[in-house]
Amino acid sequence: MSSFKRALIPAIRSARPRPTTLQRLPVVASRPLALRKYSTEPVKPATETPEKPAENPADAATPNYTEVLAEKDKQIASLTDSYRRALAEAENVRARARKEVEDTKAFSIQKFAKDLLDTADILQMALKALPAEELEAGKNQHLTNLHQGVSMTRVEMLKSFKRYGVEEFHPLNEKFDPNLHQALFQAPIPGKEPGTVFEVVKVGYTIHGRCLRPAQVGVVQDTQ
């Protein structure tokens, strides 16, 4: 065999058809066919739902100015009332403080003035002790001078009292007042109204309208 033939033999062998192998495919389960059902009832017309109007975002965000103003008015009225009450209370406090200061000044000499009333009473008793007939006749010049000196001293003392709000009162024939008078005795007096003062034993004094010492008096008694 020639070399040419020997070279063709492998080529011929490789050109022979090879047997094909069949691959088994997986079995797919079959599904039953779905049947479409048709209803025999009449078709009802669909009801239309009315659409709500879309809310405007600007309207939702806008406040009710009427309500806001009304609420502000209430707050202003409440604050105004509180402010007025505070002013009134402050004014009352200032008025009470002024009154206390004035009373302190007015009645600071009350005890001192009350101690001087005994001196005024002694001067009054000295004037009453001098015999009136001796003074009228002018028989004793020394006695007359003494009377004038005592009288002038008492007058000046009363003037000094008055400068500090202390005043004398003589309630003869006045209606008895327990706030200003001290009844020492009672007696029926014909022609006098019961309850009136018919005799003043010791005069009374006030300081700035307040009783400093009540007058000691005799009161007409009711005989009925």
UniProtKB/TrEMBL annotation:
User: Record's PROSITE patterns?
Assistant: GRPE
Coiled-coil annotated residue ranges, if any? 69-107
Gene Ontology annotations for the cellular component aspect, listed alphabetically: PAM complex, Tim23 associated import motor
Q: Which GO terms describe its molecular function?
A: adenyl-nucleotide exchange factor activity; protein homodimerization activity; protein-folding chaperone binding; unfolded protein binding
User: Predominant location of this chain?
Assistant: mitochondrion
Query: Which keywords, in A-to-Z order, does the entry hold?
Result: Chaperone, Coiled coil, Mitochondrion
* Family annotation (Pfam families): GrpE
Q: What is this protein called?
A: GrpE protein homolog
Species whose genome carries this gene: Blyttiomyces helicus
